[in-house]
Amino acid sequence: MPATILIADDHESSLAGLEGLLSLEGYRVVTARDGETALAEFSRVQPDLLLLDVDMPKLRGTEVCRQIKSNPETLLVPIVLITALTATQDCVAGIEAGADDFLNKPVKREQLIARVRSLLRLKAFTDELERAEVVIFALARSIEGKDPYTQGHCERLADYSARLGEHMGLPAEEIKALRRAGIVHDIGKVAVPDSILLKPSRLTRGEQTILRLHPVVGERICSSLKSFQLVLPIIRHHHEKMNGSGYPDGLRGNQIPLRVRVLQIVDVYDALSTDRPYKPALSAAAALDVMKKEVGKGWWDPEVLAAFEDLIKADECGAQPKALAAAAR
Question: Residue 276's beta-bridge partner residues?
Fold first, then answer.
């Protein structure tokens, strides 16, 4: 399928010229004559690239760019702003709005085609990465779907850990990694036979050895995704313990990255506060009491647990998100 390009320009001659050049190159072209129409057409056709005149009626091109780039679901769509050669202020505003490139009027054919091809190659690459991530997430959810007792576990972990990361002031990229890790942290269980994964009774020593390989397998599955570089340590180390008694590497204390310790806390809390074949769900208070005792054994980070307890208490004083409220009942 040819790439779709949305061109927005209120000057008829400029619009027709750009449309003609790109159509001759084999692209599918959609047009708009003002900023509001450009946004509507963007939602309708979901183009691969936008060419926006800066000075348009209703909404300037920079504002259209800002709205698209402020949405996490559309921020990777490349946007080229078209402006006058001397409009330095427009260029500054465009950079601040998140524009990927600029073209000066009058637009030269060779320059236009080169920029469009370059940005579409980049878009194709990011689309491929997104498709790979979708496959990984789907695989992780299929593992969760095998066990009715873990339904919703991945989504809860993604929500809990991201909110706890925000509460603790972690950087945005680590919060994003926590959200992803909440979904994929147990993806390595795809290599664990169902007879072990779903066994209602205690596992034998040999079965435990097989199960304990899943963090390493999970890291290997996701290792080719560069966008997962902050996620990989969470996948590999979410079963480590502060006193070094965890697996697979026996890390101790601060050897375990902070974002791993964040996910560990919410993972344990969710396991304790939801029904399992071998135990009923604990209340929020009872689950926290158990975790405090485990901190005393040297398993979890006491500061992260204290921050999580603060978060739960703050939620109990106000409106709780549905996921947290369900686990806290």
Answer: 279
